[in-house]
Amino acid sequence: ELRAPPDKIAIIGAGIGGTSAAYYLRQKFGKDVKIDLFERGEVGGRLATMTVRGQEYEAGGSVIHPLNLHMKRFVKDLGLSTIQSSGGLMGVYNGETLVFEESSWFIVNMIKLIWQYGFQSLRMHMWVEDILDKFMRIYRYQSHDYAFSSVEKLLHSLGGDEFLGMLNRTLLETLQKAGFSEKFLNEIVAPVMRVNYGQSMNINGFVGAVSLSGADSGLWAVEGGNKLVCSGLLQASKSNLISGSVMYIEEKTRTKHTGRPTKMYEVIYQIGSETRSDFYDIVLVATPLNRKMSNITFLNFDPPIEEFHQYYQHIVTTLIKGQLNSTLFSSRALDKFDLSTILTTDNSDLFINSIGIVSSVTENDNLQPLTDRGYVWKIFSQEILTKEQILKLFLSYDYAVKQPWLAYPHYKPPEKCPSIILHDRLYYLNGIECAASAMEMSAIAAHNAALLAYHRWNGHTDMIDQEDLYEKLKTEL
Ligand SMILES: Cc1cc2nc3c(=O)[nH]c(=O)nc-3n(C[C@H](O)[C@H](O)[C@H](O)COP(=O)(O)OP(=O)(O)OC[C@H]3O[C@@H](n4cnc5c(N)ncnc54)[C@H](O)[C@@H]3O)c2cc1C
Ligand SMILES: CC(C)=CCC/C(C)=C/CC/C(C)=C/CSC[C@H](N)C(=O)O
User: Which of 239, 182, 223, 180 is nearest to 359 (CA)?
Assistant: First the structure.
């Protein structure tokens, strides 16, 4: 039995989390609910592009895993096109020399890997695959409409105590325990953590596995930019975009058209210098809740809603069109240097995390130099690069543009994830980033929050936090 749907729902944040929440809420609650989506910056949030010489390049979230089924579904439903992330050869630099270099010959590569690291690369692949297999259970649960009231319960339903254990231990501890060698960890695993999360192997094991899966083959992106998924979902959900900054959320009793006093949430926001407010039955917060990133205050809640102090990692994306000074990395002659991505080991003397050639968000210029003056390179660094540092990296360059980010949580296991249910009908999506931050994770959190809000609204407690779902759904077949 269903209760009458809510009149109004507010979502704060129009990144991939907020816009996919709007899409799923519309599916669950139907066409009559008014959905307001608040955004103080650009639709897309951490999915954004930067322009170099008239071409757009991904500046934030750029690659999507072939098994990220929500993102795949969005692209299909919205009629968008995809582009394959171009491969190219990768090397690992330790501050003095290249400790690993890929070859364009598959067989040579295999021999190199086995020669340098034994069968650890294959074992690592199998380790990640096993985690991904379990992770994929979420799609089955969500397609059967099951929801979870906490990130820990969601993870436990996927991978049991093993997944919770990964959240509480560092990747280094987890992989050392699994028998991986120091050399393999330092020369292969640590560089992948640096390029993807700008951190060391002291991040939690779960995000470590997600990061390693981000080095799989078959990665893809959305033609025209990943942010097109957000604008597409916003439109498809028929939500109303409010370009304003939410400052406060307060619980208040209001008399609705039925004449009954009802507890509602007042969302107080600013557009320019003007302060406005509106009342909602349900509110979803789809932005990291900390002072630096969203600055939202919860007023008069009983019990009070805790302050969130999750520290987000500062990362700078720099795009430079120029000619790489490859002699910095290798003694090989300039014209013999064929690497398109250079990762780095955990060395505090290095001023970059990674550097790699990127193609624009339109497919047709894949890895082609824009002119004979060079490719466009994407550099990730902890700090903004100085002119001296750029001149060290490039023999010549004719354009540079940067974007600093508070990119993803600074992982420090054991992780205690923030609550999803902040109050009766107030939900928080970005707590899932404590497990791992990625576009698909935000989409999963959004689907979960929409289902949770729907079931709690209708009193369907049997659809929330069901134990042994994997077994139950197996026998249902
Ligand atoms: C440099 C970089 C590279 C990345 N690479 C990848 C990748 O290759 N693959 C991948 O899967 N993931 C990647 N990620 C992670 C991915 O981009 C994020 O996990 C994801 O985009 C988060 O989406 P979100 O909607 O949850 O949050 P956000 O995108 O941060 O959206 C939150 C939105 O809320 C808005 N907002 C905040 N406060 C308020 C307020 N008070 N009022 C109104 N609006 C507010 C913000 O302006 C923002 O638009 C990367 C991230 C970065 C920074
Ligand atoms: C959620 C699952 C199962 C998989 C996601 C895998 C994935 C795509 C991880 C990437 C995560 C991330 C934060 C990457 C940042 S850098 C991306 C890229 N290397 C670049 O150069 O821009």
Answer: 223
